[in-house]
Amino acid sequence: MPLDPQTKLVLAALTGAGVPDPWTLEPATFRAQVRAMRVAAPEVPIGRVESREIPGPASRIPIRIYTPLERRAGPLPVLAFFHGGGFVIGDLDSHDGTCRELANGAGCAVVAVDYRLAPEAKFPAAAEDCYAATRWIAENAGELGVDRERIAVGGDSAGGNLAAVTALLARDRRGPRLAHQLLVYPVADCAFDTRSYLENAEGYFLTREMMRWFWHHYLEKPEQAEDPYASPLRAPTLSGVAPATVITAEYDPLRDEGEAYAARLRQAGVSTSLTRYDGMIHGFFGMGAVIARAKDAVTQAAAELRKALA
After folding, report:
1. How far is CA 79 from CA 66, 68, 198, 235, 304, in A?
2. Domain of 61: which CATH number?
3. C-alpha span between 41 and 2 (Å, rounded)
4. Does 248 have pLDDT greater than 70?
5. Considering only CA atoms, which of 80, 40, 86 is closest in space to residue 64?
6. What is the span of the domain harbouring residue 92?
7. Taking a C-beta distance cutoff of 8 angstroms, is the pair 83, 159 a contact?
8. Taking the model in full, what pTM does it have?
9. Which residues are catalytic, by number?
């Protein structure tokens, strides 16, 4: 279908602001430019927010814990959330609104993880941080007031990749047991030749060249693209991982790899919900302040989490 009218206006505004060409910038400069482009949105009321640091594989990991407005008796289910940003950009602030909405909508605690970014910390640093944080949640469930039997992982874009990889690591390393994985237009493979990559290479916010730049900085060497903990679509089998919700966008270079990952999950016998949001672009999930369909997607994701964590 055609681009959603509200999305078209967002694209026009982004184009007018001048989306930077990452190949001409150092990562730190690109991060600063992207931060400057963030659109202020009304703060979502939440029960409680707490910032902490936890032990990580190489250094302490900053986290942000969200408690929903609706607080039921007993331990809360919990979502470990990993932000998007191509493994190079993004932080706790970039996805603060999304975490608040998911916490309230799903009735769960959300632990947002500020994993190490590339190129300062290359693969598998981000994945190991996200797995370590998820394991820490399980090991400290009592102190956090959450239920270690109802832990989900989730994220968007690169965060979706890290959620899928954390689910693989949890299976392969025998814990913690995960109840669900929420994958919003996930980066599932280091390849740039799918139909959606060709159709949406330019003009829809995320470009093929941006993804090449992100992968260039994330991987230490090109052959790491074959590693399933970098490209989960290349895992020999997906059997035994947590049930999944996968959300994709029509005008997104990552559309086809996300949908291929959903298909592989189903083939492996993993209960999987897949929804493509037609007329949408990459990044729409966090644009609820200006795109009505984004609110629908967040509502759906929260409902899927609430059901899975019930």
Report:
1. 10, 12, 34, 24, 12
2. 3.40.50.1820
3. 26
4. yes
5. 80
6. 5-308
7. yes
8. 0.97
9. 157, 252, 282
